[in-house]
Amino acid sequence: FYPSWFCGNYHAYNGREEDLPVDQHELLACVAPRLLYVGVASDGWADEPRGVFYGMIGANPVYELFSPSAAAVRESDYPVTKDQGYFGDLTAFHHHDGGHDLTLVDWDLYMDFADLRLTDHATHRESRGARPAARQPSLVFDKKGGRLIWRVVSGAGPAPRVRICSLSGRQQLFYGQSIGGHVVFDISGLAQGAYAVVAGVNGRPDMRTFSIVR
Predict the structure, then answer these.
(1) Three-state DSSP class for 153?
(2) Could you report the per-residue pLDDT of 91-142, keeping only the tens digit for each?
(3) What Cα–Cα distance (Å) separates residue 18 from each residue in 50, 60, 80, 106, 115?
(4) Predicted TM-score (pTM) of this structure
(5) Would you say 132 and 77 are in contact if contact means Cβ atoms under 8 Å apart?
(6) How far apart are the C-alpha atoms of 212 and 171, rounded to whole Å?
(7) Nearby residues of 58 by Cβ (< 8 Å), 6 or more positions away
(8) How far apart are CA 18 and CA 107, in angstroms?
């Protein structure tokens, strides 16, 4: 399938995959110690959920070299419940019910993990599947006015440079308007999809994700 995806040498192993000098778990292990999220479908022509899951499990020893105390998705988690996220400190997995596609279930789980780990990667150590503790939100949605507001905490200095970008890559990033120390975006014209809001706060990047369903 799709020969343009792979180099010519790879096709030399068609029909004799057992002779490949590397396997998928080794490719996934190359991501360590960075965050890794693997998602798979039930009915996709290219999806084999059990093999994908165990490929991820095979990368665990390399993650443990970098972070011995980090909670991980484990072999004992299989068989997994469909449409449910299995979140470790550095790795995550889910198996969505349906075909080879990016669904709203996928986006919701990807963004849950991003909110849990990317907002403060160094200090989050919640147990697998747990949601972040309640905190004062920096994003406020004004649904009636079709606006999104990045709220700057009092005394934190001037409003940071904030921008929104589409996670689907179909829309260029754009910037909000600084009003009263906050940054305000008109999101009434945004298409359905998943978005990231990125800001520089006190010299550090901060990110929130959201989705729009029409």
Answers:
(1) coil
(2) 999 999 888 888 888 888 898 888 888 864 444 344 444 444 333 445 666 6
(3) 18, 22, 27, 31, 39
(4) 0.56
(5) no
(6) 14
(7) 23, 24, 25, 26, 28, 29
(8) 34
